[in-house]
Design brief:
Elements: E1 2-10, E2 16-24, E3 27-32, H1 44-49, H2 61-100, H3 110-119, H4 126-140, H5 158-171
Helix pairs in contact: 4-5
């Protein structure tokens, strides 16, 4: 029993798959090169302790337990990859749907906004003014739904910017 080399195989002549061939007393096992992580090379000390590695159907707890654990980890990775793929497909579909939506831009009541902003306790910093300008542009100039995230450290003034955007939305008859 042991490793006897590699072998190439083709299903229909176009796709060639390479395998590592493991020989056992009761048959050969072909392991795809993409699954080599399922094979463990035993150190000489560990190999001496395992007696039944020469048969595929051996009941060795060492090999059976190791293979089961590796297979379980491999299957868990496959499940996670599939869930991530599905989420990406859903996210892509959602964004594609959002870009096809056409909405009327928010109406701007400059006088009401000026009065409201002057009544605000804090004046905006340069960064807050820039963020507000970008958000107002999205609300009043673009015809697609706004997709913007306002983030910053605690106490940086995100609420001041959000209140101004909420005021414009309410004045345009939208829910906040």
């Amino acid at each position: 029993s042991g490793w006897s080399g590699t072998r190439s195989d083709s299903n229909d002549g176009s796709l060639i798959q390479e395998y590592v061939v493991l020989e056992y007393r009761d048959g050969d096992v072909y392991v795809s090169l993409s699954h080599l992580d399922l094979i463990t090379v035993l150190s000489p000390g560990a190999a001496e302790k395992v007696e039944t590695l020469d048969v595929i159907t051996g009941k060795s707890t060492f090999t059976q337990g190791t293979i089961r654990k590796r297979r379980a980890r491999y299957m868990a990775r496959l499940r996670v990859r599939e869930k991530i793929r599905k989420q990406l497909v859903n996210l892509h579909g959602m964004y594609a749907q959002r870009t096809s939506v056409d909405r009327a831009p928010f109406e701007v009541d400059e006088e009401a906004e000026r009065q409201f902003f002057s009544a605000c306790e804090f004046s905006l910093t340069a960064d807050q003014q820039e963020a507000t300008r970008h958000i107002f542009h999205d609300m009043s100039e673009r015809r697609s739904p706004m997709d913007r995230l306002l983030c910053g450290d605690v106490g940086i003034g995100k609420t001041e910017v959000a209140i101004r955007a909420a005021f414009r939305a309410v004045r345009a008859g939208k829910a906040v």
